[in-house]
Give the backbone structure.
Amino acid sequence: MGKKINRRQALGILGASIATVAGIGVWNRPKIIDFLDRDVEKQENSEENTVVTRLYPSNGQQLSLLGFGGMRFPTRMTASGKEIDEELAGKMIDYAYRHGVNYYDTAYFYHEGKSEAFMGKILKKYPRDSFYLCDKMPTPILTGLEQAKKIFQGQLDACQVEYFDNYLLHSLTTREQFEQLYIQDGILDYLRSEKAAGRIRCLGFSFHGDVPFFNYLMDTFSWDCVMIQLNYADWNDEGEAPEGSRQAGTLYRKAMEKGVPIFVMEPVKGGNLAILPESASKILKAARPNDSEASWALRYVGSLPGIVTMLSGMSSIEQVIDNIHTMADFQPLDDREKQVLARSMGKGTETAQVHCTYCRYCDPCPYGVDIARIFHVYNAQAVRLGIATDTASDTDKKEFIIRYKNEVRRAGRAGHCIGCNTCLSRCPQHIAIPQEIRKIDAMVRKTAADTGKVVI
Ligand code: SF4
Ligand code: SF4
């Protein structure tokens, strides 16, 4: 079991200018790079601050309880548009690797198709048997078997590997789509043949559908693993009916009943559980003053038996440090802490937020609306400051308008939505995007008017 370093020391070296909200704010880049470079020397031959592992019964290996998701790397604006900040993201992966993270997850869609090649480039310098790589068949864009074969070969090439440790049918949503593509078109049989050939070690699926579809998949087929969305806000207890995304408990119990090893996505709900309203945050801080809100979310998931690895799509070095700190010498939530978390949830965390996980599957909006960013600013600022509930002070209203204007570029703001509904079917969280965007637009305009500002 790994040992902890002092989190304040680790973060303090980066200076106060680093934003605490994922990927948003001022980056003191040279200091971050310097910190990461110095960690190479420090961590060499040391097992300190190393994340705990769990047995993956399907391959008999020990996987890190924390996995690195390749969906939300830091980005930079370049002449050709937004690109992965390869220097910084690469050093973040290296830091995670040095601290015991051995599970890496990418997908065809992530970073507009660039995540796989980037992940492959960074991991190539490490022995292939020292890390576990997961990729996924992009279900939403599949048209048939021949295309699936080309995509699979292209993914191996992009990642520069001979095999995937886990390979998932990505984002299964409806039984009709699954049966058409994977059964009638033969893509599931094809993937099984790749498993027999050794180019896939373990085969499973990631899921965004409803409970009857999940039960059908679990009862009808044999899987090496399953990836579900699980976090404390999406959990439903035994006897509590599933509702919207709040079905994680039902899916978890079914997978456990079938003995299928569970991988978890969105343990922090796309970062939303790291940016709680102040009233909820205060309760957690009173119980564990030095711990982040995200650490509560990770510990909740890690406390459940049967979870092999939870993915975090880390987009800043402070997230990487914080998550690794939580996962080194991992402590499950005790009964008192579970009660603290329940009290914090009673402060309206879930009801106020839009349940966007920042996956960006809704992009691009034909009218340029930056949907994910708008929801993020709403969750991180409007909910936190009380703008969403119309309880904010004038000072907080002014702060919100400044944040909104800084963080959502003019062409991407909510007022540009014309309600065309193109985005609607793309959202795995089933968010009524146009309605939510309209509500936020009205809230922004009212707040701006209250403070004598104008937001176009
Ligand atoms: S409904 Fe609005 S946000 Fe969605 S695609 Fe259309 S214009 Fe863009
Ligand atoms: S609105 Fe839906 S599709 Fe778009 S980023 Fe959020 S969760 Fe993803």
The chain has two domains: 7-349, 371-450. The two ends are 53 Å apart (CA to CA).
